[in-house]
Design goal:
The complex is a heterodimer of chains A (266) and B (263).
Chain A: H1 2-21, H2 29-54, H3 60-68, H4 71-88, H5 92-97, H6 102-108, H7 111-131, H8 141-168, H9 172-186, H10 198-205, H11 210-220, H12 225-260, H13 262-265
Helix pairs in contact in A: 1-6, 2-3, 3-7, 4-7, 4-8, 4-9, 7-8, 8-9, 8-11, 8-12, 11-12
Chain B: H1 2-21, H2 24-47, H3 55-85, H4 88-93, H5 98-127, H6 137-162, H7 168-176, H8 178-183, H9 194-200, H10 204-217, H11 222-257
Helix pairs in contact in B: 1-5, 2-3, 3-5, 3-6, 3-7, 5-6, 6-10, 6-11, 10-11
Classes of the chains: A mainly alpha (266), B mainly alpha (263).
Chain lengths: 266, 263
């Protein structure tokens, strides 16, 4: 048993390391910063000005929300691209032909995206708080960081699902982008989820990130663990469901591919 | 001569529309992304206590955003795809100049982007009961033409500019939202800090858009419209002139290096 766990952990870390080294889209610091901050940063500024135009005087809600939404770029789009690119780069056949257990191979793709996402928010959030003179007297830093880490982890579930879809659909990137954009409305980044129509609130609560962002906001406002625990556990549960669905989809596609060669035919 | 030119334009547009312009990703840029931005704007407006959103900025501005995004992505990615597919050298070696090909392609992309604007007008009128009763219709039409010309001039400039670099795709990330941000696609320019308003003065779309918003509201004088159209036209021509200069530079560089793929 112990040997099996060590083997799985070793594979997981090696896969994570290779997945990190294969991030060609981030091959230069310029590409890294542009791909991570370009669209998200300027969209945030645009939403701030839209808010100012419609009469919202305090931009902090929008700014904090958009920073907490950063995992949608790194974990959702990044993991989706990492998994989906296996086929594009011609590595899929070798991967499917290898005897290695699939779980660490598949899940290992996410580790660096989760860490990167966490570090990005952990740096961006204090800078924003300092810039906007946000009142932090009651803020529980440990809980904020915990919420940020959990949100980064749970968002990877959506990345796995989208990555699996990208393996069998040429327009996978379009679907990922659509979901990523929809989060500006659905995840409660720019306004409270309660502002949405009822049916969209149901969609919002069935996504990872929503509860994580709410919990992080509450922790920033000084809420204690007891107050945010239901949100945190709900977020973890939602993330685990998405990760399980993503993994199940990958295994299903793998089995189908063994019969029809579908992954190489696209 | 004219017949030959029209034939070239027709064929190039046909190919561009079939191969590059209309695909699922374009529909995301033309319709979904503007809808998301407009949606956020409208919900923020409701959260701020407004009964109705400002349709000129929230909905029609969203349509303009779709038009711009579609042009930026298609025109700049065209070069990247040509380079990757080995087409760039062939286009450069053909009797039709790269600049002409890019100009027709960009025109196609800009005209295709009109579907986004049209959809925005339809949404505003059919869903939100937006009325053009107060609008200065000739002013709206001329302003739209100026916006199209401005976007085209910037598109041709960017298309030539990105020939120089392999990382053109990354530049797009930096251009897609900042131009709408600076030009006030979804809010009046007066909302922006003064330094940002000054910065936006070099962008032709900003002037044409101010004229469009003025014409849609029907509250601006003819002098205001004429001065803004004049500025939009002048700046568009400057961008077009810069594109011609860049095109010459690109051709010189190709003659020296003998290939484009290494750039």
């Amino acid at each position: 048993m112990k040997r099996l766990i060590v083997r799985y952990l070793r594979l997981y870390i090696i896969q994570a390391w290779f997945a990190y080294r294969a991030l060609f889209a981030w091959s230069t610091p310029f590409n890294y910063f542009v791909s991570k901050f370009g669209f998200h940063f300027f969209s945030m500024i645009m939403f701030v000005f839209i808010g100012k135009f419609v009469g919202l005087t305090d931009p902090v809600y929008i700014v904090i929300g958009n920073i907490l939404l950063l995992p949608s770029g790194t974990c959702l789009s990044g993991i989706s691209m990492t998994v989906g690119n296996e086929r594009q780069f011609g590595a899929m056949s070798y991967l499917l032909g290898s005897p290695a257990p699939r779980a660490p191979i598949f899940l290992g793709r996410a580790l660096f995206h989760i860490l990167d996402s966490f570090v990005t928010i952990a740096i961006a959030l204090p800078v924003t708080i300092w810039f906007f003179h946000f009142d932090m007297t009651n803020t529980n830093f440990f809980l904020v960081l915990l919420c940020v880490f959990i949100t980064s982890f749970t968002t990877s579930g959506m990345g796995f699902i989208m990555g699996s879809i990208s393996l069998v659909n040429r327009d996978g990137w379009m679907i990922t982008s659509t979901l990523s954009l929809s989060l500006y409305i659905l995840a409660g980044a720019n306004f409270p989820v309660a502002s949405l129509p009822a049916f969209l609130q149901v969609v919002s609560y069935s996504l990872p990130m929503t509860r994580g962002i709410m919990a992080a906001r509450a922790a920033l406002d000084g809420a204690n663990w007891a107050a945010i625990a239901p949100l945190v556990f709900g977020e973890i549960a939602m993330g685990l469901i998405y990760i399980a669905v993503g993994y199940a989809m990958f295994r299903l596609l793998e089995r189908q591919s063994m019969v029809s060669g579908v992954l190489d035919n696209l | 001569m004219i017949r030959r030119a029209l034939r070239l334009v027709g064929r190039q547009m046909n190919v561009q529309l079939r191969i590059r312009t209309f695909n699922l990703y374009s529909s995301l840029l033309f319709f979904l992304q503007p809808a998301i931005f407009s949606g956020v704007g409208m919900i923020l407006s409701r959260a701020a206590g407004n009964e109705k959103p400002d349709l000129v900025y929230m909905v029609i501005g969203g349509g303009l955003l779709g038009m711009w995004s579609g042009m930026v992505f298609t025109s700049t990615f065209d070069i990247g795809r040509d380079r990757r597919d080995g087409m760039l050298e062939l286009i450069v070696a053909s009797p039709t100049s790269l600049g002409t090909v890019e100009a027709i392609r960009t025109l196609t992309n800009v005209l295709a982007g009109l579907v986004s604007m049209l959809a925005a007008f339809l949404v505003a009128m059919l869903i939100f009961d937006y009325s053009l009763a107060d609008a200065d219709i000739p002013g709206v039409v001329i302003s739209l033409i100026m916006i199209l010309f401005g976007i085209w001039a910037m598109g041709v400039f960017l298309a030539n500019f990105t020939v120089w670099s392999r990382v053109s795709g990354s530049y797009v990330e930096f251009l897609e939202i900042p131009i709408p941000l600076l030009c006030g696609f979804m809010y009046p320019l007066g909302i922006l800090p003064v330094w940002m308003q000054t910065l936006s003065a070099v962008i032709p779309i900003r002037w044409a858009l101010e004229a469009l918003n003025g014409a849609l509201l029907g509250k601006q004088s003819m002098a205001f419209l004429l001065s803004h159209w004049g500025m939009a036209l002048l700046l568009s021509l400057i961008f077009w002139g810069l594109s011609r200069w860049l095109e010459g530079k690109v051709h010189d560089r190709i003659r020296v290096t003998g290939e484009m793929s290494s750039i």
